[in-house]
Amino acid sequence: MHTSHFAPTTPAVDVVPIRRVLVSVFDKAGLDRLAAALKAGGVSVASTGGTATALAKLGVSVEDVSAITGFPEVLDGRVKTLHPSIFAGILARGDRPDDLAVLDEHAIERFDAVIVNLYDFQSVIAKPDCTPAQAIELIDIGGPSLVRAAAKNHAFTSVVTSPAQYDAFIAAIARGGTTLHERRRLAAAAFEHTANYDAVIARWMARHAGLVAEAPLAAPPSDPSGEPPLPARVTFELERRLPLRYGENPHQSAAMYAPAGTHLGLAGLKQLCGKELSYNNLLDLDAATRLAGLIQDPAAVVVKHTNPCGAASDGTVAGALAAAMAADPTSAFGSIVAVNRLFDRESAELLCAPGLFVEVVAAPAFAKEAVELLTTRPTWKGSVRLVEVPAGDPWEATAGLELRSVAGALLAQRPDDECDDPATWRLVTKATPAPGLTQDLDFAFTLVRRLTSNAIAVCRGTSLAGAGIGQTSRVDAVRIALEKAGERAKGGVLASDAFFPFPDSIELIAKAGIAAIVQPGGSKRDPEVIAAADAAGIPMVFTSRRHFRH
Predict the structure, then answer these.
(1) Which of 67, 430, 502, 541 has the most CB atoms at less than 10 Å from its CB?
(2) Number of domains within the chain
(3) What are phi and psi of 351, to 5 degrees?
């Protein structure tokens, strides 16, 4: 009768020697170091396919899994390790005489460690030319099963799932085995690994199958906006990307997390220089870059406390930046600046002017000369953060959803990031906006959607002149925006993120000399508001789309 080399033990016996291992790795990085350690430690190695070939070339004597199972690899390698002779050797409990008796009865040897990493499904599906057939072939079956089995039996079996873990494992071999503490940590990492792997596959499969929601058959296929229903379940793993000194206030700990594998939007930001980013910096960066991304022409946005205090578009980034900084110079001090094109030397020269100070500058890319100027010339050169934010759809990793936390739960919605189409807007007054105001109205309505509601934006040309933000009454938001704009309101345009509930706002707008209004409409008092605009001779356009931002 065959005798297992592994003597009965219990989890109380801390160290498990590494005498026999199963190795099957897709990622061959570091395999040479591992092979050398296995040879030096006299470890018996079982392996499959490409891994067995690679180990043999490195001088390791390898027992083929087919020799253990008595069954060849079949179905183009889809089935090779799925066999009791493999899994019993991984899952047998070292402190159970009945488990060890089963191994003896069937001539099965225990594995002290399983070294497995999985097919790189994430990278394959990220390729633009990836076909469904290619993706499906990269769904690993045996690998996750081996990893989970070893992780479950971590009291007796080590599981290594990444080349980054090799050095610690090699050290354990040399000193006589892994400790229970090490095996627990490896098991935890293994379950995280397989959970993320399955989540990536689940998201891809849902898209491939056209599955967007689990809804009753009688439910309508979409909501009134024409969008598909929201998913019934969203699965992703969050990984810590950026530790932060603290949260909104110094007594709150904080970090930025992102779905594993995604590197778009702020999840893929690259900081070129400056102090570390703060929690509040990131909130302001989100507001600034999202608004800049909505504007088609070269644009600059200046944000303070998540709201634009300056924004403009122009023929050049430098021209837009100059106009945006001039909109509210007081608020622009210590602000976050974002542009939607290359941040060039001319733009950097503007920020180097005496008396200016910005916390962060964000752009898709920076010219080398601009970086040199901003990090050597102004008095705040040592503290400014220059951040590159990659282009692309940042919502793909969250099933197309914008997520926001509330106590004990998450709210989800489709992002309000689609540009409005002025061709669908409706003139509701007798007076018609002057032809030159069409672009201004479009800019103002684009801008107001990124202000905190209740929100009003007053623009002169394609530049913000004044904003009323976060007010509990719309007429107060109008009053503040007009006061901020001052004389620039005369001949400018005004945008509201939602309807005017009463005509009192129109009276203030008329006194300020506003040349045209754009608003969603939809109030039961729309006729009264339209009548007030007609009485004042102010053109007003309804968009039929509200843009609240709470």
Answers:
(1) 541
(2) 3
(3) -75, -15
Residue 213 inside a domain? The answer is: no
Amino acid identity at 463 = S
Where residue 366 sits, what CATH number does that domain have? 3.40.140.20
What's the pTM value of the predicted model, to 2 decimals? 0.71
- Any residues with CB less than 8 A from the CB of 241 and at least 6 apart, and which? 255, 256, 257, 258, 267
Distance, CA of 323 to CA of 187 (rounded, Å):
56
Distance CA 368, CA 344 (A): 8
Of 191, 206, 221, which residue constitutes the final position of a domain? Answer: 206
Cα torsion 407, 284, 291, 474: sign: positive
Residues facing 243 on adjacent strands: 255
Q: Are residues 346 and 456 in the same domain?
A: no
Cα 342 to chain center, whole Å? 22
Contact 357, 383 (CB under 8 A): no
- The residues with which 301 forms a beta bridge, in sequence order, are 311, 338
pLDDT in tens, 200-242: 777 777 666 665 444 333 444 445 555 667 777 777 778 899 9
Angle between the N-to-C axes of helices 142-152 and 180-208, in degrees from 0 to 180, rounded to the nearest 10: 150
User: Which domain range does residue 321 map to?
Assistant: 267-388
Average per-residue pLDDT in the chain? 86
181: three-class secondary structure by DSSP? helix
Using the structure block, give the residue that is written with the tokens 């003896």.
Answer: 104
The verdict on whether 305 is a catalytic residue reads yes
Distance CA 111, CA 266 (A): 43
152 is known as an active-site residue = yes
- From 39, 152, 275, 381, the catalytic residue: 152
Identity of residue 303:
V
- 10 Å CB burial of residue 93 (0-12, 13-18, 19+) is middle
pLDDT tens readout for residues 312-324 = 999 999 999 999 9
Identify the active-site residue in 263, 275, 305, 381: 305
- Report d(CA 30, CA 165) in Å as an integer: 10
For residue 493, what are the β-bridge partners? 459, 516
Dump pLDDT digits (tens) for 161-177: 989 999 999 998 988 88
DSSP strand E in 48-197: where? 62-64, 113-117, 158-160
Q: Which residues pair with 542 in a beta bridge?
A: 426, 519
Distance CA 354, CA 161 (A): 55
Domain boundary among 169, 188, 206: 206
